[in-house]
Amino acid sequence: MAAARPGGRVDALPLLLAAIALAAVAFGGFIVVAPNRLLSGAPLTLWQAQGAGAPAAVLTLLALIATLAGLRDFRFRWALIGLAAGALVIAAMALAGLAAAAHAEDAGRLTRVSLGAGFWTLLAAGLLILADAVGRERSLPGKVVPVLATGLGMALLMAGGTLSQLSLAREYAVRHQAYLHELLRHLELTGAGLALALLIGGAIGLMAYRRPRRAGSVFAVLDIVQTIPSLALFALLIGPLTALTALLPGLRQLGISGIGPFPAILALGLYGLLPVARGVHAGLSSVPNAVVEAARGMGLTEAQIVRHTLVPLALPTLFQTLRITLVQLIGLAVLAALIGAGGLGTFIFQGLGQTAVDLVLLGALSAIVLALLADIGLRGLAFLLFRRPAR
Amino acid sequence: MNAGPAADGASRLLRRPVFWVGAVFLALTFGMHALAPHLGFLFPEGARLVYTRASFPELVASHALLTGAASLVAIAIGLSAAVFATRPAGRDYAATLEMLSAVAQTFPPVAVLALAVPSLGYGALPTVFALVLYGVLPVMGGALAGLGSVPGAVLDAADGAGFTPGGRLWRIELPLAAPIILAGIRTSVTIGIGTATIGSTVGALTLGSPIIDGLSGDNPAFVLQGTVLVALFAVTVDLGFGEVERALVRQPSGASSRTR
Amino acid sequence: MIEFESVTRSFGGTRAVDEVTLAVERGTICALVGTSGSGKSTLLRLVNRLLDPDGGRIRLDGVDIAGIAPVELRRRMGYVIQSVGLFPHWTVERNVATVPLLLGWPAARIAARVAELLDLVGLAPDVHARRYPDELSGGQQQRVGVARALAADPELLLMDEPFGAVDPPTRRSLQDSLAAIQKRTGTTIIIVTHDVEEAIRLGGTLAVLEHGRLVQTGTPAAVLAHPANEQVARFFGGPLLGLHLLQALNVGNRANFTDPSQVGGEPIDADASLETALARMIAEGTSRLPVVNPANGRRGVLELAELVGL
Fold first, then answer.
1. How many other C-beta atoms can be found within 10 angstroms of the C-beta atom of residue A365?
2. Residue B159 pLDDT > 50, yes or no?
């Protein structure tokens, strides 16, 4: 039993992270002001960028975190640390937005204010303290409230326009239309790939459950598909599909071709096969044999057994499979841009090609946020449905 | 050592898929240059057939070096973190580490790679960074699961027998957790090979380079050469790990004669 | 000799072991009994410092164990637990050799000791030494567990419900083996059990725990004849307590060796338990049994009325 000893030891991690954040604020470049979007700029510390008030605010929050971390344990102590860390994250973002606005006004229209290493370190430290606090807080509300409050704060900052002068936001503003288009395309690709994976992978999983003797060889083949590097799998489909459309030109009218969305969806579907098939197999296998036997003994038909025992009992696992596969495919769909299928990867690879950092950030951060939202959303849904936190 | 078991071992090796896939991989690595000019029939549009930016053995070596170096670092970090989180002093951090790894696992590898570029520039460095970052998670996950799978009774018995904490870790916990730890390392290396392939989009020299060059230069011959080799490379390494796992499960602690 | 002096240990506010004072003599078996949650396992784990007390002292041959490094202390004691905890990646041989290896014994001495111990616990060294734990039955695994605990000639053997997970016939055979081994080696044993019969069969002394407090100590016969309170009586069988008392007493206690009248039939050993004698009376439909004392050959008679203590 890990009962806290009276007088307990000091929790080192929040203190360490707070110290790192302090150093980042004191010495790190908080924002970088560049004459235009392609040239590299000069870093400014928070002090230089915003005067004494801003560092003082950050310092106060860091002192609060350090004090709470040093206190003896009490109820909701970690929830309070989490809230303070969330406030730190939001303060960092708000200060960056305000600094950007101030410096963009001074200079010409082409001036770009991007985020510096000091900002990113402060942000990372804040998020890590938050994660640590959520991990250690015992009560469920104490875990959920700090995360929700931080998310809400970020959303308000973005909606309220505080961040609009940051180069990342300006990059977005310029590409508003294209962004929505590619985001939608990303979701379409992911959705179509997921549907394909669920359909075929589900069937394979069911088959493996019904015929356990074949399960081994089926999974061995799917394992190999999963082993092939994703980029290779995307590219591997180009050749055969191009050859196929050359042989059967009619296919081209159906929108099937060697490059573009079709091979991308196919590759995403193939990649999703293994997690889906394994998940379905594991979910069904996790239903105790005794339950199925008992159901059979009470005279349920095979269909009733599936409906009343197998599916309800396997549902949490099946739902988890859906979450893992969806998150994985959202990440992989980034590669679709390489074979001309569009999606958020378009911005990343364009940005990499033009060495336009903000464009890369726009695509990469969007993909990360999308994957995180899908993960958190489905975890929350699973919790509401099954009253048990998903693992 | 007489010839019997050695010959027996060789013939057993011949029957393993890892041998054949590996042989094809090596043959193509060294033979691709000679083979490429004869692939014209596959590409009637008349594309350039021979990739010239680097030789295929060079690409394989660079790819393997990047993945190998990053994997070693990732294994060291992941294992240490998991061992720390399962010791009395670090147990408080176990929940945090597990949650961080769950969150980080949702990050798309390409996005992590791309995010490394602004601070590390183009080339091998951001690739290694992303490889390490991404490789730590499965190693740590596997090690946490493996160390957690050692039955409490065994740990209790080990303490009762008077093992020192270090002795218990080295001689009881790690050997018992080894299969699951190895599975984590296997996943980590497989993901690493895949991520290194994407590394060529930020300028690292890997087997992904012909694929990326072929895609951007509209040259299907390069794409095919790159994909086939990298797929064979990944499958060979994965099957190789499979062999090590089999050996580990069959002979715990290297005992040679297990009667059954 | 091991002495507990006002030993207390709490978990999160509850006292699992509460002011226990107890002495276990060298060369005896002491059974710690009580319902689950009575603190008997905690008390045992305080002895090899898998736990440390919050208050009080434990002395081993007069030396406070708080001053002995846990690792060194544990190597001087054997430890057997219910789930055995054999190291699954080591052979039987290596498992038994654990503590001698830790102590750095020479290989030849270890090999000889392993063979001797396997023999002692009733396993054939040439058959079982090279096997892995998962290739043994539950009873065999527990025999290996006992051999491992005895490997380095411990001064003290600590056993935590050692035979709780094996079937009843195997359990009895293991108990007999343990009793025989103890007689041969003279090892001091502290055994935790909630099995009343096991406590009676093995225990030279019973120490009954209740909510962390020691409520009664004494020989099985004494405790069963005069349980300290209602709970102790209930623990030892409630309405069936009398039957357990028959297990704790032997024929010699109640037989009459002065009555010259002889009874026909196979005589029963004076060492046998009264329970065995009663079983024979019922089976043979008689109220008198001939008795022989194997030590001196004297003969006597056991009457049903004497057996039930009238």
1. 17
2. yes
